[in-house]
């Protein structure tokens, strides 16, 4: 479906990447359950695992936990998929430290969220990502998510960043197809969709995959969607898009991510444990709606098997 067949920087990260959940039990990271979730993803054929992103509740992890989760993922995956470590921060110095540690431990790439709360100028965004890219030898994926960070990385800034060696990808979560089109049309960066429900629309204008939340639940179906889109099979891709649409919407619409997906994992028998404050459990009415969505999709509540 892509209109441009020119190889892009970062194209080896095309396809499905899953922003993996961080499981908790009794206030601690549950590394046993983390490994179970990783094996589930690897069995499904997920090409890349993204630990300690938003879905992994990275803002609630201590620095030691943050680093250990990344190391556990790298060691468990053991080359069977790529690992794009979430090592961004609103502090450039902290982002540098986390990224250098992840690179030293064997991460294949780094996901770098836009510095949040600070609301830097566009020059500040540029200098921040440039500093990270120059400090490591692994590819950098710039994560543009203004809904979380309070400010958007503008297209002109991304165009400048595309000239920095080591910056090869953008996770585009502005929700704007025009933004995706502009980046694809004016840079050689690989664009990865940051909103599950927009995977097909973004791939239709040149994105090459998705960093997915819903992939925690149904990785095989997300892989099928991405493959159909990349092969230009619009009819099949459209059917899969509409099949997945309600599930994707509810994973990001019922409450702040990762509240709904953690609730869904529990309902389908793949419990990833509690949330950490300030995240709280999904409200009862929303749980009921989520159950209906799962049943409609064909996942039997609390059983983990297809209905």
TrEMBL record:
<dbReference type="InterPro" id="IPR002220">
    <property type="entry name" value="DapA-like"/>
</dbReference>
<dbReference type="InterPro" id="IPR013785">
    <property type="entry name" value="Aldolase_TIM"/>
</dbReference>
<keyword id="KW-0028">Amino-acid biosynthesis</keyword>
<feature type="active site" description="Proton donor/acceptor">
    <location>
        <position position="143"/>
    </location>
</feature>
<feature type="binding site">
    <location>
        <position position="211"/>
    </location>
    <ligand>
        <name>pyruvate</name>
    </ligand>
</feature>
<comment type="subunit">
    <text>Homotetramer; dimer of dimers.</text>
</comment>
<keyword id="KW-0456">Lyase</keyword>
<protein>
    <recommendedName>
        <fullName>4-hydroxy-tetrahydrodipicolinate synthase</fullName>
        <ecNumber>4.3.3.7</ecNumber>
    </recommendedName>
</protein>
<dbReference type="InterPro" id="IPR005263">
    <property type="entry name" value="DapA"/>
</dbReference>
<feature type="site" description="Part of a proton relay during catalysis">
    <location>
        <position position="54"/>
    </location>
</feature>
<dbReference type="Pfam" id="PF00701">
    <property type="entry name" value="DHDPS"/>
</dbReference>
<dbReference type="GO" id="GO:0009089">
    <property type="term" value="P:lysine biosynthetic process via diaminopimelate"/>
</dbReference>
<keyword id="KW-0220">Diaminopimelate biosynthesis</keyword>
<comment type="function">
    <text>Catalyzes the condensation of (S)-aspartate-beta-semialdehyde [(S)-ASA] and pyruvate to 4-hydroxy-tetrahydrodipicolinate (HTPA).</text>
</comment>
<feature type="site" description="Part of a proton relay during catalysis">
    <location>
        <position position="117"/>
    </location>
</feature>
<dbReference type="GO" id="GO:0019877">
    <property type="term" value="P:diaminopimelate biosynthetic process"/>
</dbReference>
<keyword id="KW-0457">Lysine biosynthesis</keyword>
<dbReference type="GO" id="GO:0005829">
    <property type="term" value="C:cytosol"/>
</dbReference>
<dbReference type="GO" id="GO:0008840">
    <property type="term" value="F:4-hydroxy-tetrahydrodipicolinate synthase activity"/>
</dbReference>
<feature type="binding site">
    <location>
        <position position="55"/>
    </location>
    <ligand>
        <name>pyruvate</name>
    </ligand>
</feature>
<keyword id="KW-0704">Schiff base</keyword>
<comment type="pathway">
    <text>Amino-acid biosynthesis; L-lysine biosynthesis via DAP pathway; (S)-tetrahydrodipicolinate from L-aspartate: step 3/4.</text>
</comment>
<comment type="similarity">
    <text>Belongs to the DapA family.</text>
</comment>
<keyword id="KW-0963">Cytoplasm</keyword>
<feature type="active site" description="Schiff-base intermediate with substrate">
    <location>
        <position position="171"/>
    </location>
</feature>
């Amino acid at each position: 479906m892509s209109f441009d067949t020119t190889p892009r920087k970062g194209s080896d990260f095309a396809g499905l990447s899953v922003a993996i959940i961080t499981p908790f039990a009794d206030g601690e990271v549950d590394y046993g359950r983390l490994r179970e979730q990783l094996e589930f993803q690897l069995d499904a054929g997920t090409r890349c695992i993204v630990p300690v992103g938003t879905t992994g509740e990275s803002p609630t992890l201590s620095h030691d936990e943050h680093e250990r989760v990344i190391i556990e993922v790298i060691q468990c995956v053991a080359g069977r998929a790529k690992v794009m470590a979430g090592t961004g921060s609103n502090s450039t110095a902290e982002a540098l430290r986390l990224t250098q540690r992840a690179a030293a431990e064997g991460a294949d790439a780094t996901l770098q969220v836009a510095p949040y709360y600070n609301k830097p100028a566009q020059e500040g965004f540029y200098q921040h990502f440039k500093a990270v890219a120059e400090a490591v030898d692994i590819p950098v994926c710039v994560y543009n998510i203004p809904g979380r960070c309070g400010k958007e990385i503008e297209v002109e800034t991304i165009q400048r960043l595309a000239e920095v060696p080591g910056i090869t990808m953008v996770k585009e979560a502005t929700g704007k197809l025009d933004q995706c089109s502009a980046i694809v049309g004016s840079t050689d960066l690989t664009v990865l969709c940051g909103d599950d429900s927009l995977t097909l629309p973004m791939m239709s204008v040149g994105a090459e995959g998705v960093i997915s939340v819903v992939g925690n639940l149904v990785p095989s179906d997300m892989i099928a969607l991405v493959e159909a889109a990349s092969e230009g099979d619009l009819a099949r891709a459209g059917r899969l898009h509409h099949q997945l649409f309600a599930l994707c919407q509810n994973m990001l619409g019922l409450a702040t991510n990762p509240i709904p997906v953690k609730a869904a994992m529990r309902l389908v028998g793949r419990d990833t444990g509690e949330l950490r404050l300030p995240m709280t459990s999904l409200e009862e009415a929303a749980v009921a709606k989520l159950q209906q969505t799962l049943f409609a999709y064909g996942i039997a509540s609390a059983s983990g098997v297809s209905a």
